[in-house]
Amino acid sequence: MKPRTAIEKQIVALSESLAPIAPEMYSWAEQSIFLKWGVLSRGKFHCLDCGNAWKPESEKQSAKFTACLACKGKLKMHGCNQVHFKEIEYSAVVTCLSDFQIVRIICSTKQMKKNCLPSYSHTEVMQHWINPKGEVRTMSRSTNVFSHAYDAWQYYSPLEIRPKDFQDSPKYRINPYRFYPRLKVLPVLKRNGFKTSFYEVAPQVLLSSLLKDHCAETLLKTRQISWLRYYLESPHQHVLRNWQAVKICLKKNYTVSDFGIWEDYIELLRWFKKDITSALLVCPADLHLEHDRLVEKKQQLLRKKYLVKMRAEIEKAQGLYAEEKKQFFGLCFSGAGITISVLENVSEFMTEGDSLRHCVFTNEYFKKIDSLLFSARIDNKPIETIEVSLSKMEIAQCRGLRNHNSKHHKAIFSLMKKNLYQIRSRMKKKKAEQC
Predict the structure, then answer these.
(1) Is pLDDT above 90 for 150?
(2) Parallel, antiparallel or unpaired: strands 119-130 and 136-140
(3) 408, exposed or middle or buried, with CB in 10 Å at 0-12, 13-18, 19+?
(4) What is the DSSP track for 24-74?
């Protein structure tokens, strides 16, 4: 896009005055960012880095890695044999101009072929311009919109200024594999804790955060690198919201084994209105145990509130259910230690669904006019729930825990089938009374 604002015009003008990438930087990239590859073809190892070929001493030598006998390089073996091989990697040059911190992203390609030396090509595809306030504007080349790859660069296109929302693009977060070791950074970044390492974080993300975010600065200065990576890279993190609790962890040198679980745990403490400035609560000895305990406690409380809310609806549904199915109430039969009885209350549907983790209550089976529901129990413990079709007089379904068959399924099914006549006889009795 064409530069419109004063800052955009300034960045474009400064970009034109930037010195081109020096040849020694490209030479460094060729030696540093690419793997050394090998391939097994027609019983010979081929080094794609120096062109040497040799026969392996034994068939067992064909492994994922091997050493070239000529250049002594450790070769990673290609899984398939082909004519041409290509590898693409990113590197970066970190420099500054005027009062801007600049991250120059270079896309390098290594073309390889058996018995030949590799050839290299390098293109600067992006420039991230970061002002002292931590605001980032990016210049980049265009990409092929019809490609499935987000970084299918059109290398012939010029570097153009991108809008602010370019930071939402996956191209913005491209993290180079290596950085040119001669870094030039603004003095304020050194003051804010930056030395030479980016800790596997995209440089434009880390440097801009250090200029505008006190949390990132604190985490870097206290060497909490795992916290820092989680804060800058996780899309679901809530470090800023939980900053007081985070500072307590830093002060107590508490190691968080799972940041996602820890933040869920802090939210649970907040839900129970606990003091999240207490080190005893914020830094539990067993994080997962305390997390699971609070989850269970919350579920129980929500369950009680839900029951209070549902009580009126259950009472209303109970009247309709009793009117339709009262002729079957009291129906019960047993055998082989199994007792099968009709569900007489809507609240029993809820209990049955909770015990066996299925949808007999949530899908409101008590409203089905053609269905009659039974509970099969052993020692008064629900084992399976049985649905009988009154129109077809057959078992529609018989489900146990999580809708799976229990080990007593065959016995329950057989016992239910033998006693279907009792349901039929009660239906005939009701028809006779109506006549």
Answers:
(1) no
(2) antiparallel
(3) middle
(4) HHHHHHHHHTSPPEEEEETTEEEETTT--EE--SSGGG--SEEE-TTT--E
Alpha-carbon distance 80 to 355, whole Å?
54
The mean pLDDT of 207-221, rounded to a whole number, is 94
Reply yes or no on whether the pLDDT at 198 is more than 80.
yes
DSSP 90: E
Strand 381-389 and strand 371-378: pairing? antiparallel
Q: Which of 66, 83, 129 is nearest to 102 (CA)?
A: 129
Amino acid at 172: Y
Site of tokens 């050394």:
36
User: Are the C-beta atoms of 63 and 95 separated by less than 8 Å?
Assistant: no
Cα separations (Å) of 305 from 72, 267, 298, 300, 362? 71, 20, 11, 9, 16
Alpha-carbon radius of gyration of the chain: 35
C-alpha closest to that of 329 among 313, 317, 345, 314: 345
Contact call for residues 372 and 397 (beta carbons, < 8 A): no
The pLDDT mean for the chain works out to 90
pLDDT value, residue 59: 58
- List the beta bridge partners of residue 88: 109
For residues 362 and 158, what is the distance between their CA atoms, to the nearest angstrom?
Answer: 59
- pTM, to two decimals: 0.69
pLDDT for the residue 216: 95
Q: Token pair of 345, please?
A: 């209350």
For helices 259-271 and 287-325, what crossing angle results, to 10°?
60
Can you give the pLDDT at residue 257? 86
138 DSSP β-pair partners: 128
Contact 215, 245 (CB under 8 A): no
**Rounded Cα–Cα distance for residues 22 and 10 (Å):** 24
Cα–Cα–Cα angle for 142, 147, 149, rounded to 5 degrees = 85
Alpha carbons 427 and 23: distance in angstroms, whole number: 94
What is the enclosing helix (H) or strand (E) of 300? Answer: helix 287-325
CB 79, CB 95: distance < 8 Å: no
Sequence length of the chain is 435
Rounded mean pLDDT, 239-263: 92
* No. of helices (H) and no. of strands (E), the chain: 13, 16
Q: Distances from the Cα of 274 to the Cαs of 135, 239, 263, in angstroms?
A: 37, 18, 14
